[in-house]
Amino acid sequence: MVTAxxxxxxxxxxxxxxxxxxxxxxxxxxxxxxxxxxxxxxFAVLCIIPVYPIAWxxxxxxxxxxxFWTGENPxxxxxxxxxxxKDGHFTITTxxxxxxxxxxxxxxxxxxxxxxxxxxxxxxxxxxxxPLLQFVDNHQAKVFLADGSSLTVSIDQAGLxxxxxxxxxxxxxxAK
Length: 176
Description:
Layout: H1 2-12, H2 21-31, H3 36-48, H4 51-70, E1 79-85, E2 88-95, E3 98-103, E4 109-115, E5 120-124, E6 129-135, E7 140-144, E8 150-154, H5 157-175
Antiparallel strand pairs: 1-2, 2-3, 3-4, 4-5, 5-6, 6-7, 7-8
């Protein structure tokens, strides 16, 4: 009986540390409260009720196991941030597929989209999709240039330098 129980738990608790996304979302929300007294009060109440222990246990037993076996955590990580710049106020939405940027007061959006099947990033506007780069393997990436050509570089400082030199050469050629 004990052996059967241990084997059952070994399937659920698959030695994957996991991202603990539910617990971390709760903790991040609690930390976002600026008044330290209110922050501590909410923390204490959420420990006593016991919201924090339940969120942690849910991550350990269910969500992290699902994340281990499927590669994705069902507690979707959608984050929304407001950024103020000299050019205006922007809303940046981050999810599993990439980033969406929208200037407040306009309908126009720009998205940086990650395609899992192609292992690539692209820039998507309302009118077009522009490929940016595709990972060839763990050491190289194919970068798509503005003139329609591409360049395969290593994913390290030497590859970044090679890309920078290629872009400067093309810019210099275009200036002549």
